[in-house]
Amino acid sequence: MLLPTPAEAARPSGRTRRGRGLLAAALSAGAAALTAVAAFAVPSATATAAPVHDPVIMIPGMTGNTTSMDTMKSNLQSNGWPADRLFTWTDSSKMTQDLAVAARELGAKVDQVRSQTGASRVVLATWSASTLAARYYIKNLGGGDKVSQYIGFAGPQHGTTNNGCQFYVSCQQFASPNTPFLRALNSGTEVPHSNKVAYMTVRSVNDINAAPYDTAKLEGAHLNYLMSGPTAPTHFTIIRDATALAEMRRFIKEHEGTTPPTTPPTTPPPSSGTCYITSNTGHVQAGRARAVWGQTYANGSNQYMGYHSAYVTTKLRQKADNHYVIDNTCT
Description:
Layout: H1 6-10, H2 14-41, E1 56-59, H3 70-78, E2 86-88, H4 99-117, E3 122-127, H5 130-140, E4 147-153, H6 169-173, H7 180-186, E5 198-204, E6 223-227, H8 242-255, E7 275-279, H9 280-286, E8 289-292, E9 295-298, E10 304-307, E11 313-320, E12 323-326
């Protein structure tokens, strides 16, 4: 006869063992169920939400089609930017008209994109002549509160020696560093509202259109990126260059969320002061503006209004005696 071992003698009866086994199984199943619920209810500590990028408006240069910016658009999309936050656009003249007028059209596009996407601010990715229209918009037309980042590729920010294009009005405005348009645009600061707008420029030593190539720099920009060497892009390939686009993406990500938030588009309260809406010629004749070498400037504020022409209309608001400012909210 085999006697039970001490360990076997210490075991509880079969019924008790079965009861405890069932209890243990139930507890184990319950713990597994709670673990499963927790797995669905609590996100992983390593999971991160995808960034919400500001919408990007990509703008070609003088005579350029929006398709010129397709490579840039595809590059952003393939690197995580949603398609519904990427826009290519140009003004009604393809940047050949007075760039102050192009800037006003840009303002309307910015407002449309903000309304469509619900974003407070947009990124402006500009090329060549459109770099100037975008800066004019930021400086003079309220863009400082609606733009988070300004990126200028190969812009004639201080004129160009390659200026045989002066049959276009816009080209006349950047044909040299001393045009009235550029003097007014670059006066005070070359990076208006830089406390709210991050500025980046991209230029190349092989650019013979915006020449000399350092014309594309902006004093005070957060980044003036120079591409050098024999393989550096030209004026026309810089907006498709993989290195340039990678730097642009890095800059955008680096400065996202660093600018002060603004409220969604709303109708602003009316400003004080009398409004005057007429042609630039009419403003000069009425003593609200002055004409200098065919260009028009508002008295007092010295804001550039565009060409001295009966066909260019500007909205001016009087802020003080003989002091007028451009105000597109005038009705």
